[in-house]
Amino acid sequence: MKKVLLFTAAFFLTLAASAGELTRAAFPMLQRLNAELVRYQVTDRHDPDCGAIICPGCSHAHTRAAEAVFPLAYEYSLTGDRDRLRQALAVGSWLLGRQQEDGSWPETPDQWTGTTTDQALMLILAYPILEKKMSSDLRRNWTASIEAACDYLVGFMDNHRASINYCATASATLAEAYLLLGKESYRQKASALAHMVVAKMNPEGF
């Protein structure tokens, strides 16, 4: 029994060490990517797209670019860089302002709304990092936006409307939303999507 416990402890210590090495290797890349992204962020407070990240290729403010809210927030969590805090809050608030009445975000300039799962997930993951720096009104706006997006996903997301990768992501999004907001419908839909995705895997794991 002692050998089993020692082996288990060694296994998890190895995993922790590997995770630490990966973080140390990946973090400089994250910083470089964030630094490049914010070069294209609108900072003029009088601009209706303030906070948006403008695509250098087509000059469009894609809603998917606002998924940078989590990488920016994560860098802030590790460094305390207040520029990253400000940039994360700005792009998140811009995204909230582009949400449709049904809770979705179209993948601008197109109208596909399946990527709502990606945008919602990034807001959910960024929220615990940023909430203490938000006003009470802004916290309510973020959680209301997350709830509206996830309510939309509960009704919209299935393998008839979306390809399997969206269903897998939506399962993770709704599971995280359940932990944040506690709505039982999110847990149930996350479980249903996860089981559906696993059932479609082939013997090679794809």
Low-confidence region ranges: 1-9
In total, how many beta strands?
A: 0
Based on secondary structure, the structural category is mainly alpha
Q: Describe the global form.
A: globular
Walk me through the structure:
With 206 residues, this protein is an all-alpha fold. It has seven helices and no strands. Helix 2 (69-79) runs parallel beside helix 4 (116-130), helix 4 (116-130) packs parallel to helix 6 (164-181) and helix 5 (136-156) packs across helix 6. The two termini are 37 Å apart. Residues 1-9 have low confidence and may be disordered.
Which helices and strands appear, and what pairs or packs with what?
Blueprint: H1 2-37, H2 69-79, H3 82-97, H4 116-130, H5 136-156, H6 164-181, H7 184-199
Helix pairs in contact: 2-3, 2-4, 3-4, 4-5, 4-6, 5-6, 6-7
In short:
The chain is mainly alpha-helical.
Please give a handful of descriptors for the protein shown.
single chain; 206 residues; mainly alpha; 7 helices; globular; disordered N terminus
